[in-house]
Amino acid sequence: MSSIFLLMLISSTISIARSEVTPLRVFAKIPRNASEERQQVDDSTDSDLKIFYYDQNLDHFTFTPKSYMTFQQRYAIQSKHWADGFICHDNGPRLKALLVYIEHRYYGTSMPFGSGKEALKNASTLGYLNSAQALADYAAILLHVKEKYSADHSPIIVIGGSYGGMLAAWFRLKYPHIALGALASSAPLLYFQDTLPKHGYYYIVTKVFKETNESCYNTIRKSWEEIDRVAVKPNGLLILSKKFRICNTLNNTFELKNFLDTIYASAAQYNSNQYPVASLCEAINNGVNSENDLLGQIFAGVVYDRGNRSCYPLSVQPTEDSIAWKWQTCSEIVLPIGHDEQDTMFQTEPFRMDIKIDRCKLQYGVPPRPHWVTAYYGIQDVKLILRRFGSNIIFSNGLLDPYSVGGILEDISATIVALTTPEGSHCRDIVLKNVDDPEWLLLQRKKEIEIIVSWITSYKRDLRDFNTL
């Protein structure tokens, strides 16, 4: 038993307008340096990564003729020690790890129905895009890989961040016979209608800005009314468009506010020594072009965040990935994120489920199921349920991450552990190692590895005891 398989749900970021959901890391991604081959390759190859395609079932849960349709699901294997992240770059030799990256259905090239155009065209084809199908995909491929490498008794650890972290935790709960354990980083498992956190996403955004620089916080807080004041002037929207160098003239103030909202939310979510909120605030504080030019200060923040451009687009052409994610947020991943009264850096605009349902029905012809995730994965009373039925999960959360309000922040049992870092941001523990990583981050990663090693040690002991019976 020489190999550990690590299913790495490496996430890429796509930003959705706040009318749908704030930025969330979404989908598993094959590393860029993978070489693409449809045939199996010998384990002794010197290539870092090899890509394969698996004939995946369209529908794992019915036995209708259509369910037996297949699509090519892409996955990558690295049989040498990984050099793209903290787990195996630093600990590959110790863990003797084989890495498996599996692309989420409907993302990248893993498209049913032959193409993204067909797969994403309406609810009839998009209906096969959901977390339960994705987990079943992972199970099928991992069992296939274990058979391919004759590694029946090699333990599997699943790792993911954000939505990928949710998938990692859910996979351990639904497929405990396949995954020995899971590391779920920045996974907002409790951010659903049935398990609403006390405070919301924008409470943390507000807190981060206020504690970082109160002057900056006050400038942003006052800017929303100033935008409204200018907008009602004759040609007010044109004035604002020129002020912020918007590529196309604004149709309403929401477009501008949403653009700015995304900048602030992203800054808080990924706040670190590489992307500090403090630097954004410094740009805002120093951005006065003339006396009392509040919006000039705000625009200076835009320039800092987006670079000095001739004009700034408010939206980008939808990608296949963003279309797929929008469907998921309109079907089962319905995060009730809004601006509540305590989110004092923003104008109050609470989340309304009735509006969400109407928008989703208008676009897809079917309403979302906001209670399905909590029913299917059993997280209504998370402490009791996980204590009785769960084990071997690490929930890691940086408390500067706005999604941490929906995370599991306390130990539930000896083997379901919460690691929280007051200075941590979104998924920071599982991103690339950096020479500037602070000591607390190094210690967090070390602790995660120690816990994973303890699971593997216990598994090996159980396996030896079983074999001596």
Can you describe this structure?
The two termini are 18 Å apart. The strands form two sheets. The chain has a nine-stranded mixed β-sheet, sandwiched between helices. Strands 2-3 form a two-stranded antiparallel sheet. The chain has 469 residues and is of the alpha/beta class. Helix content is 41%, strand content 13%. Strand 8, helix 5 (163-174) and strand 9 (181-185) form a beta-alpha-beta unit. This is Lysosomal Pro-X carboxypeptidase. InterPro entries: AB_hydrolase_fold (IPR029058), Peptidase_S28 (IPR008758), Ser_carbopepase_S28_SKS (IPR042269). Pfam families: Peptidase_S28 (PF05577).
A few lines on this structure:
By secondary structure, the chain is of the alpha/beta class.
Tags for this entry?
single chain, 469 residues, alpha/beta, nine-stranded mixed sheet, two-stranded antiparallel sheet, 41% helix
What strand line-up does the widest sheet have? 4-5-6-7-1-8-9-10-11
Distance between the termini: 18 Å
The best one-word shape is: globular
Overall radius of gyration: 23 Å
Our estimate of the beta-strand percent is 5-15%
Mean pLDDT: 88
The oligomeric status of these chains comes to single chain
Series of secondary-structure elements, N-terminal to C-terminal: EEEEEEHEHHHEHEHHHHHHHHHHEEH
- Counting H and I runs of at least 4 residues, what is the number of helices? 16
Helix/strand class? alpha/beta
Into which percent range does the helicity of residues fall? 40-55%
- Uncertain stretches of 5 or more adjacent residues: 10-23, 37-46
Number of distinct beta strands? 11
Describe the largest sheet: 9 strands, mixed
